[in-house]
Design a protein that fits this description.
heterodimer, A: globular, B: 3-stranded antiparallel beta sheet, two-stranded antiparallel ribbon, 6 helices, 11% strand, binds iron/sulfur cluster
Amino acid sequence: MSALLSAGALVAVTAWYWQLLTVLLVLIAVLTIAAGLIWYERRLLSLVQDRYGPNRVGPLGLLQVLADTFKILFKEDWTPPFSDRRVFVVAPSLVLVTALLSFMVVPVAEGWVVIDLNVGLLFILAMSSLAVYSVVLAGWSSHSKYSLIGGLRAAAQMVSYEVFMGLSLIGVVTLAGSFNLSDIVAAQQRSIYYVFPQFIGFVVFLVAGFAETRRIPFDLVEAESELVAGYHTEYSGMKFGLFMVGEYVAITLVSALIVTLFFGGWLGPWLPGVVWFLIKTLLFITLFIIVRGTFPRLRYDQLMALGWKAMLPLSLLNLLITGAIVVAGAG
Amino acid sequence: MSPDRPQELRPRIPAQTHPPLTTDVVVTGHLARRGQPLVPRIGRTVWSTLVGIGIVISHAWSSRDTVQYPEEMTYLPPRYRGRIVLSRDPEGEERCVACYLCSAACPVDCIALQATTDETGRRYPEWFRINFSRCIFCGFCEDACPTYAIQLTPDVEMSEYERPNMVYEKEDLLISGPGKYHTHDFYRVAGLAIGGKGKGEAENEAPPRDVRDLLP
Ligand code: SF4
Ligand code: SF4
């Protein structure tokens, strides 16, 4: 009896520890990458702008991240008296938590995933919809005109971009026949990287990803030249830091998703899967930053027009074609 | 604008010359491309987008505009308006005659001094104080000075940890040379009698006229 119990318990405990380890690994890795991105973005952005960027603190300015973190920790964490206190405090953590939760279902390498959810993609879409609340609530609870405008823009932007973000992925799901991200990668192993049959879907998802992370050219939620800092105008100290880290985690997430869905995730010759995954993800993060260095911010109506008039029809077209091909192949 | 203002004085608003901006400008990008067929328009927009990214990336290899300051220094021209000094004439005497003109000209009132005279009757500042935490380096003091005593120099490295250290006294300001004007000597050109030099004995100067012999 006791032997039976211990054997069963051992398996359960080992599995449990393994899971805990994966959770910790992914968490630490994601947060480290997100922090490193602060440095990476500043250096890369200055590289393409004929500057040097932070190069004083530590080798290549790498310790700038640490310096920034300490600075932000020691800044006064001010909650404006005119704000809706509870919501104001909760909002920043929401953006980080949802982005981190999404990472649960992203397979880093074969079998390296926190939860092998069979509705993984839906889960990520749900989480990204939840992340919008963070921005909207931050804008609402700040009781400041800039924050409110930023929050309103966020709501409108997300409502319109979420639609084709989801639609652009349906093609991939149709081809792979699964919502599970590991299965999608495995399906790409059997055929080709989905960026080829799903090129339109890839482009649409890329655009939606920019909008989802509220980055240039879709950063009119922040729009520092018109709205001070948009939805986080009233935030300071580590609460602002959370928005910041949340943004970088979101960039990492969207890049990782693009890699997983369209570029074969961990697949690749010679190198181990994790390395391939990281290299590909970093490439897309770089693209995010280069795009930030290239484009001006879209105007509000331009953003809406691009979303509803260009991206939505495109993703529907993509869906139609993919469906036709799949049906033809099956029949 | 008051309604009784004459019509011709009102600012003219130029008539709108371009078609109003509407949402469909966007998808296709440029205003100038409106009215052209859709597919080439989209093609050109996509192409210009890619070219834009290419140009941005190509800048990674261009030379940097940044000056790595403590190691490198930007060129500051000789007439740069930086740290203020009090210069001396070619004989090594203080040029400043404590006329207060710089102090009066200073827009932020950061110059303070006290005039006194030496045994020869020559004026000089007993003390001279510039508060550099207020100075805006406008150079008005230099313009106002009749003796070229006060001069701005191309030196900007004057940071301090304590604000009181930004107040420079006369011994901090006075330099041992003539600054930008090597030969200028105020008392040699001024028609002023001081010890060792009578009125009219200066350079390019005639002795004073006896005004009575001008009478008819
Ligand atoms: S530079 Fe301008 S502000 Fe500074 S002491 Fe001279 S007059 Fe005053
Ligand atoms: S520095 Fe020049 S302007 Fe100022 S008190 Fe001396 S002589 Fe006059």
